[in-house]
From TrEMBL:
It comes from Jaculus jaculus (Lesser Egyptian jerboa). This is RAB44, member RAS oncogene family. One of its GO terms (molecular function) is GTPase activity. The keyword GTP-binding applies. SMART domains: ARF, RAB, RAS, RHO. Residues 34-47, 149-167, 394-405 have a biased composition (Polar residues).
Length: 693
């Protein structure tokens, strides 16, 4: 019985436990239910949040796109407005200058356009700046900003090249008249620069000083008035024969003055570190505008002249301005052509100012490119040959032309040139003492332009003076001098003929991130010297390189674009006409390599699908800092269907060879395209005429 009673109690206790457990289970189930409903709510909220996020991202993207468009428009508007302001201001300024006695030194205060091209531009502020008349007369010059060295500021732009554009005309004639009696023929002294001008450009006569001095904008009153001036590609009514013809007055070469560097402005951004390239700049000590290249200008006296002061930048300023006024130019140009074939002032409704170039004189790059194409179709390639003196260096002895006889009277006889061929102009040996004399590298130094590039009609490019020591050819590995060479001499009739009538002309655009070395590469290609302290490219620049490859003369019009983002829209414009594209990256910068795809996208956007692409990794001399293996470059090139090469602009490795290969590829591509064109046309049914015809 006792056992039964115990059992009974135990059973009851168990039952109680079971009941408690069941209750606990119910509670837990209830909690679970609560939790799952909470979870459901949370997940639905999550879902909503995700949708909202997606919405916001889309809107953000839209806003970004709009911002970009707005930026582009502001950029274009800013360019136009600044030009218009300059034009308005230039007339009174010119009068002031005439009234003032003595040479007018470039004033750093008045040099830069307000805030132009600064990274942290407040666009509204800029526009309002442009909208309100400045207190000081603005001049057609951009001064380089002071360049305090700060290696930490890698994103800040390097010194912006100084730009000066004016349109001399009215006062060029007296200058030209003075010229005959005012040539000193001294090395480094440009021919045809009247003493008055020389006075104003101060240190011009001393080539060494020229090398050691910073580039300064110099306002030469005598070179500013040119009511009818038009840009090179836009010279209606100008007989082609006038350009480069030996019947025309000789080119006048004007070396820019070398002046003191502008006072340092602490508000301006420090110069960006160039990464591995720093070593080259460090050699120079604290960078100052002295490293900016000295410059030269050669002006054809008739009938339209453009003065561009920026060594090594060729037509950069002109093109930049053209691109800035892209939107308005076509109509205005058209109107101007109808109303006033000699110039575009009327189209703008502006009185011709003494030194102002109306904005309408700035054709779009497209117009320019088309003009060039038209010209080449019409009259061969004469106008595209810059007369670049590369071919003069075959024997290491530049041959002077009529234009530079006063510079280097002993060098050679004046070659007989084809009537449309503007002679190449070589600078005297003394023009760049640094390279030739073996001056220490620490001499401030930008490669002094000793080459005068001439752009004949209608590309009446300013002629630049830059020295071209004969370094490249011998150093160029892998390039057979028989296969790839520059025409030897203007005195050589074959060379002259080739230059006068190249077999091929191609537009090649160099693109790539800022600092990868595009300008350095091109500088080396043209001047056979590595340019230290180069400034960041502004807008675009172009030169023509003549190459003799496989017994064919190639004129490569090489466009150097600015890697800085603010100029990408300009680059995209150029890419539309590109036949060849050099996608350059820096082997020490993974980022620049990654951006190759971005540039390729730009190329595709521009519709230049048939362009021949060369992928070029620069700075291969910086092996220690290398971030992009050669193999990666090769693979990418394979993927893109591009040719590939690595080079070093600093050492001069692989400079000419890739260009030679590119020329060959361009030729092949052109032949291929021509072939397909023929096929298409031959498929056309013959024209049917009416029964009466
Ligand atoms: N070590 C080394 N430095 C180089 C080489 N090529 C160029 N640099 C340096 O790289 C820097 C940029 O060169 P740039 O030629 O101005 O570069 P870029 O691509 O034209 O730049 P943007 O004009 O801004 O587009 C300069 O400081 C050059 O001295 C090279 O082959 N080796």
């Amino acid at each position: 019985m006792a056992l039964d009673a115990h059992m009974q109690e135990a059973l009851e206790a168990k039952e109680r436990e079971v009941r408690q457990l069941a209750e606990g289970q119910r509670e837990l189930e209830a909690q679970l239910h609560d939790l799952s409903s909470t979870q459901q709510k949370a997940s639905s909220e999550n879902q909503q949040l995700r949708e909202v996020e997606r919405d916001l991202a889309g809107k953000l993207e839209d806003v970004r796109g709009q911002l970009q468009v707005t930026r582009g428009r502001l950029d274009a508007a800013r360019g136009r407005v600044s030009w218009q302001i300059e034009e308005k201001q230039s007339a009174p300024r010119a009068r002031e200058e005439k009234a003032s006695s003595g040479p007018r030194a470039a004033s750093p205060q008045e040099a830069p356009l307000p805030g132009l091209f600064e990274a942290g531009d407040d666009w509204d502020q800029l526009l309002s700046d442009f909208g309100s008349p400045p207190h000081q007369a603005m001049q057609l010059t951009w001064s380089p900003p002071p360049t305090p060295r700060d290696t930490s500021g890698s994103q800040t732009p390097r010194v912006v090249r100084q730009i000066s554009i004016s349109s001399p005309h009215a006062e060029l004639v007296p200058i030209g008249q003075e010229q005959a009696s005012d040539l000193d023929g001294a090395p480094g002294s440009p021919s045809g620069v009247p003493s008055s001008i020389k006075d104003q450009i101060g240190t011009l006569e001393d080539p060494k000083e020229q090398n050691n001095s910073p580039k300064q904008p110099v306002d030469i009153p005598g070179l500013e008035a040119r009511p009818q001036a038009r840009f090179l590609w836009d010279l209606p009514g100008v007989p082609a024969v006038e350009w480069g013809s030996l019947q025309t007055p000789p080119l006048r070469v004007q070396l820019a003055p070398e002046a003191r560097p502008p006072p340092q402005d602490p508000s301006l951004p420090p110069q960006a570190s160039a990464g591995p390239s720093q070593q080259f700049q460090d050699d120079q000590g604290p960078e100052d505008p002295a490293k900016l290249p000295s410059w030269a200008e050669t002006l054809p006296q008739e009938p339209h002249d453009i003065v561009v002061s920026d060594p090594g930048s060729g037509s950069q300023e002109i093109i930049l301005k053209c691109l800035q006024s892209l939107e308005s130019v076509d109509e205005e140009d058209q109107a101007g052509k109808e109303a006033h074939p000699g110039g575009l002032q009327e189209a703008h409704g502006q009185a011709p100012g003494p030194d102002g170039l109306p904005a309408s004189t700035l054709p779009s790059p497209e117009a320019q490119l088309e003009a060039e194409e038209g010209d080449s179709a019409d009259g061969g390639l004469q106008d595209l040959d810059t007369g670049h003196p590369d071919w003069l260096q075959q024997d290491g002895q530049p041959t002077p032309t009529q234009s530079d006889m006063s510079w280097a009277p002993v060098e050679a006889e004046i070659p007989a040139l084809g009537k449309l061929i503007l002679p190449s102009i070589s600078a005297p040996t003394g023009a760049q003492p640094g390279a030739a004399d073996g001056l220490p590298e620490s001499t401030p130094t930008l490669p002094i332009p000793a080459e005068l590039e001439a752009q004949p009609r209608p590309l009446s490019m300013p002629v630049q003076s830059e020295k071209e020591p004969d370094l490249l050819q011998p150093e160029e590995p892998g390039v057979d001098s028989e296969e790839a060479k520059l025409p030897s001499s203007l005195g050589d009739p074959t060379a002259s003929k080739l230059l006068a009538d190249p077999d091929y002309l191609f537009h090649v655009v160099f693109v790539g991130d800022s600092n990868v070395g595009k300008t350095s590469f091109l500088h080396l290609l043209h001047h056979d010297s590595f340019a230290t302290g180069l400034t960041a490219t502004v807008g675009v620049d172009f030169r023509v390189k003549s190459l003799l490859v496989d017994n064919r003369c190639f004129a490569l019009q090489l466009w150097d674009t600015a890697g800085q983002e603010r100029y990408h829209s300009l680059t995209r414009q150029l890419l539309r006409k590109a036949e060849g594209v050099v996608l350059m990256y820096d082997v020490t910068s993974r980022e620049s390599f990654a951006h190759v795809r971005y540039w390729l996208g730009c190329l595709q956007d521009a519709g230049a699908d048939t362009a021949v692409i060369l992928l070029l990794g620069n700075k291969m001399d910086c092996e220690e800092e290398r971030q992009v293996p050669t193999e990666a470059g090769r693979r990418l090139a394979q993927e893109l269907g591009a040719s590939f090469s690595e080079c070093s602009a600093a050492l001069g490795h692989n400079i000419l060879e890739p260009m030679v290969n590119l020329a060959r590829s361009l030729k092949t591509q052109e032949e291929r395209l021509k072939g397909s064109l023929v096929e298409v046309t031959s498929l056309k049914p013959p024209k049917r005429y009416g029964c009466c015809s």
